[in-house]
Amino acid sequence: MAFWSKKRGPKLSADSARLDDSELVRVADAGLERHNATLTRITEEAGLEEGNWDADLAAGTFAWHGTRGDLSSRIQVLGTRNPRDNSFLWGWDHPSVSPELAEAAKRVKDFGQEHEIAALTTRKIQCTQDQARLFGNVAIGLGLGEFTYLGTSGPAEVYLILTDITIAGPPETQG
Q1: In terms of residue numbers, what domain contains 139?
Q2: The total number of structural domains that make up the chain
Q3: Is-contact 54 62, C-beta < 8 A?
Q4: Within-domain flag for 146
Q5: Is residue 73 exposed (0-12), middle (13-18) or buried (19+ Cβ within 10 Å)?
Q6: Are 80 and 159 in contact (CB under 8 A)?
Q7: What is the pLDDT of residues 14-57, one digit of tens each?
Q8: Which helix (H) or strand (E) segment is 31 a member of?
Q9: Helix (H, G, I), strand (E, B) or coil at 82
Q10: Which of 58, 81, 109, 150: disulfide with 88, CB 3.0–4.6 Å?
């Protein structure tokens, strides 16, 4: 499990299901900028270089226990990706994702319909990890969250959109 690096996302061409749409790129770039700003803040405040995470889909919450503090947030499930066959299944039609946790994915789908971007409106698609990360940047760029977390559950990659992020420092020690 890793937080996304600050490197720029993939250069996408017309060959990648209209992922070259200029509005998509603009929104994804804005999302990447917000994601990176949040990454810097939470890394500095909670020490998230190492730690353990837990997502509770029933409660819609995420927790990360870092070296300097604990992060907690609400979550949305953007989708899951199987790295063995490069398939991505959107949260808006995922059998393991409740409708309440798929709202961000549904809003990305709405954006895809508005801009005729098949990769955002097709239930299951083939994509690379970089393309799936771009989908997270789109969600953040649309104002649907503050940060995208890529975790793993068994063989699957799970793309979570974190909202309402709070960080609590370690408990004060008695001296």
Answers
A1: 26-43+59-168
A2: 1
A3: yes
A4: yes
A5: buried
A6: yes
A7: 334 445 578 888 999 999 999 999 989 888 888 776 677 889 99
A8: helix 22-46
A9: strand
A10: 81
